[in-house]
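hey
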C-alpha cells in the first residue's frame, strides 16, 4: 500500500502506512483521490469500518466534529500560506497532463 495502489485508472502516490494493531492503521496520504483510503484498503481485501481524519496539511483537527468549522490561528494561516507557496513552485505543466 505504501508504494502505491492501482485505483481509479491511476496508481496512487506513495504514502506512509503504520500498523497500530491487528485492526488499526495510520495512513498518511500525499494526495487525496476520491475515497482513496477506502479504495486502497479494498484493493488489499480490507474492510474499512471507520475513518478518522487527524489533520489536513498543517491544520490539526482535534475534536472538531463532522460539518463543524473553526477559525485558523495566525500561525496556522502563515504555515498554510508557506506550504501552498512551496507547492505552487513545484507545480509544472507536466503535472496537469496526468
Amino acid at each position: 500500500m505504501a508504494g502505491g495502489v492501482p485505483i481509479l485508472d491511476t496508481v496512487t502516490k506513495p504514502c506512509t502506512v503504520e500498523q497500530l494493531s491487528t485492526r488499526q492503521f495510520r495512513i498518511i496520504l500525499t494526495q487525496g483521490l476520491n475515497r482513496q483510503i477506502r479504495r486502497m484498503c479494498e484493493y488489499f481485501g480490507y474492510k474499512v469500518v471507520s475513518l478518522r481524519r487527524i489533520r489536513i496539511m498543517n491544520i490539526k483537527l482535534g475534536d472538531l466534529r463532522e460539518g463543524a468549522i473553526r477559525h485558523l490561528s495566525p500561525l496556522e494561516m502563515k504555515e498554510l500560506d508557506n506550504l501552498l507557496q512551496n507547492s505552487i513552485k513545484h507545480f509544472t505543466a507536466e503535472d496537469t497532463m496526468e
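Helices lie at 36-43, 74-90. Residues 6-92 form a domain with the Pseudouridine synthase fold (CATH 3.30.2350.10).
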